[in-house]
Specification:
This protein is an alpha/beta fold and 261 residues long. The protein is built from nine helices and seven strands; from the N terminus they run H-E-E-H-H-E-H-E-H-H-E-H-E-H-H-E. The chain is globular.
Length: 261
Amino acid sequence: MMTSNQNALRLAVADQTEEALPQSSNRPARIEPDICPFCSGTSWEFVPDKGVRPCRCRSSAQHIKLLRAANLPRRYSECTLSNYCPDKANGAQLRAFRLAHRLVKEYPAVDRGLLYMGTVGVGKTHLSVAILRGLVEKGISCLFYEFGALLKEIQKSYNSVSQTSELEVLAPVYEAEVLVLDELGASKPTEWVCDTVRQIIGTRYNDKKLTIFTTNYTDVRRGPTDETLEDRIGARLRSRLYEMCQTVIVDGEDYRRRFDA
């Protein structure tokens, strides 16, 4: 039973709290925190005839955390396997889609990643991001990097004003359970670029980390001035990629041209 003094103290504290809030006719006097209807805030959900399990709200929070950590570009953030639209008459695009779908379905029982080769605008990046999103749905830690952007971040770490080091930039790239390295070979192959590529690919190769690559370069020299992927990254790394990844040729028309149609 609450005494008259305790009741008076409770009312006084409540009045002070109300006075501290901005007065508005549209605002309720008290705002209660949202409580999960499945676990009542305990993070454990009771399932009839099965007992308790981690609540679905915790799974949702973990999914959001992994998705944010994946570093997906805003342009491709909504890319999924379900909204990838391969040309039904294009066998290469259909095969690329099927391999992406199989990787997501069978992971972690997967030994090799994928190396998507092809010209611009044929869906290589879309498929790669879609794979990451599918794996994140399974609770897998993933990371996306466009290779040129990664090189710039490493270069920034050499600036004395920068608060990061090369190791801080590269550590997530080394440690990600699944990595997408987009536009491999796009940067001019200077000695520093080649050393950086060797370091990244070599580390993940030795640690048997699943990696997915996209590149505009193929293994076929189509003209006297054309370069192959081997020309851009070297014979040793191309050899390692054969073991790390299944090579998938993706061809077709540049879908971005449709915007002017």
